[in-house]
Each structure stands twice: as C-alpha cells, then as structure tokens.
C-alpha cells in the first residue's frame, strides 16, 4: 500500500483520455465503505487526488462494482465492452480477474490496465492479481517509503489487531514497510503474543 498504484493508474487513464480514447474505470465497491458515496464514481489516491469523468465525457466512466461480471457491471456492461481502454483499481478484491482481463484484451481488443496488491498483510497471495503475471505485456512493481525507517517499502504491515484478510482502510490500519521493519515488527508481535 502507499506505493503509488492508484496515482500511476490515474496517469495512465489521463494519458489515454488525452489521446482521445474512451476509458472505462472499474474499482471496488469496498472503497465506498472507506471513502463514502463519493468513491462510487471516482478514483481516489491516499493523498486525496481524485479522477472523475463528468457527464460531457465521451462514454468514459468510473464505476465501483462488487464483481467484474454482468451482474456486477449491470447497466454499464455494454459501455465497458465498448470502451477502448479498461482500467481496474483494487484488483485484489475482484473475483474472476484473469478471465475478465483476458476477454477484454484478447476478444474485445481493449487496452487493459490492472492495479492492485499482489500480497496481503501476511505477505500471502491476495485475490487473483498474481494469476495475471503470465498474461501481461508489462508488470510494474511500485514501492513507497517505509513508514518506520524511510527506506523503500515492499510490504503492508497491519497496525490494527485484526486477522481478517479483507479489512478496508488506510493509514489507520496499515503501514508501508521495508523487509527489515516488517520482520522486526513480526518478531516483536510474536514475542508479545508468547509472553501472554
Ligand atoms: N509512506 C508512504 N510512502 C509513499 N507514499 C505515501 C506514504 N504515505 C503517504 N503517501 C502518499 O500516498 C500517495 C500514493 O497513494 P496511492 O497512489 O493511493 O498509493 P497506493 O494505491 O499504492 O496505495 C503518495 O503520492 C503520497 O502522497
Ligand atoms: C494489505 C491489505 C490491504 N487491504 C485493503 C486495505 C485497502 O482498503 C486496500 C488497499 O488499498 P491501496 O490502494 O493499495 O492502499 O486493501 C486488505 O483488505 N487486506 C490486506 O491484507
């Protein structure tokens, strides 16, 4: 988390739109829990930057969905199929990600951008993001800044006591950390659990 994934996706979306291409942006409905109704039709990064398309935009949309199938996309399924570009944020929450992305790229000829977490706070695979790797033209792994020592961050450490894998949130629940700080925190936590 905090690696700049959403910010990077926003730049890709803005570049495609500047070239006159229609972009359909899909994000997780879970973001609505975190940011409120505003998150239904806007991409939102941790620094508050937002990308929203207005009514005058050429068929491009930002939509928060539960699933990537016709049930999730509902009335927007045709607009999604018709877009030149499909961009998916928070892809770790999307079931059937690889079949969806493959259909977009290979049956519909769309340009597809997908951004999401490959691993959860335990550093285990998160949703279907890793299933895309063998299908991609390009993979970019971004890094943020370790919240504890300032080195580059690689992992998301959960700072709140909860063991649910899916736990929507930001700085209140997670900190981006480097390997050394992740391992040090895990060792501390294991130590305090065994002392109890
Ligand atoms: N520790 C951090 N490392 C990097 N960026 C951070 C950090 N804390 C806050 N930020 C902010 O988060 C922004 C990136 O947010 P975002 O694009 O939403 O990342 P992601 O989608 O990977 O979680 C940065 O531009 C920066 O303003
Ligand atoms: C590590 C981890 C994250 N989440 C949630 C927390 C946020 O709502 C998103 C990640 O958003 P970001 O744009 O990458 O910052 O995922 C989770 O549910 N479980 C986890 O283990």
TrEMBL record:
Name of this protein? Thymidine kinase
Write the record's keywords in alphabetical order, separated by commas: ATP-binding, DNA synthesis, Kinase, Nucleotide-binding, Transferase
Q: What is its EC number?
A: 2.7.1.21
At which positions is substrate bound?
A: 166-169, 174
What PROSITE patterns does this protein map onto?
Answer: TK_CELLULAR_TYPE
Per the record, the similarity remark reads:
Belongs to the thymidine kinase family.
Q: Name one GO molecular function term.
A: ATP binding
Q: Which GO terms describe its biological process?
A: DNA biosynthetic process; thymidine metabolic process
Domain of life (superkingdom): Eukaryota
Fetch the InterPro entries from UniProt: P-loop_NTPase, Thymidine_kinase, Thymidine_kinase_CS
Reactions this protein catalyses: thymidine + ATP = dTMP + ADP + H(+)
User: Which residues constitute the catalytic centre?
Assistant: 90
């Amino acid at each position: 988390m905090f690696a700049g994934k959403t910010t990077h996706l926003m730049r890709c979306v803005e570049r495609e739109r500047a070239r006159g291409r229609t972009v359909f942006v899909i994000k997780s409905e879970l973001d609505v829990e975190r940011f409120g109704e505003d998150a239904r039709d806007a991409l939102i990064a941790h620094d508050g930057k937002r990308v929203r398309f207005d009514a005058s935009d050429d068929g491009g949309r930002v939509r928060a969905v539960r699933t990537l199938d016709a049930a999730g996309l509902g009335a927007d399924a045709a607009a999604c199929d018709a877009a030149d570009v499909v961009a998916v944020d928070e892809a770790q929450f999307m079931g059937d990600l690889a079949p969806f992305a493959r259909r977009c790229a290979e049956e519909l000829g769309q340009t597809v951008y997908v951004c999401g977490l490959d691993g959860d706070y335990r550093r285990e695979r998160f949703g279907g993001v890793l299933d895309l790797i063998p299908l991609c033209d390009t993979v970019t792994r971004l890094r943020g800044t370790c919240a504890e020592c300032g080195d580059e961050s690689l992992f998301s450490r959960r700072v709140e006591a909860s063991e649910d894998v899916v736990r929507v949130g930001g700085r209140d629940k997670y900190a981006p950390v480097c390997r050394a700080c992740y391992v040090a925190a895990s060792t501390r936590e294991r130590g305090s659990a065994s002392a109890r």
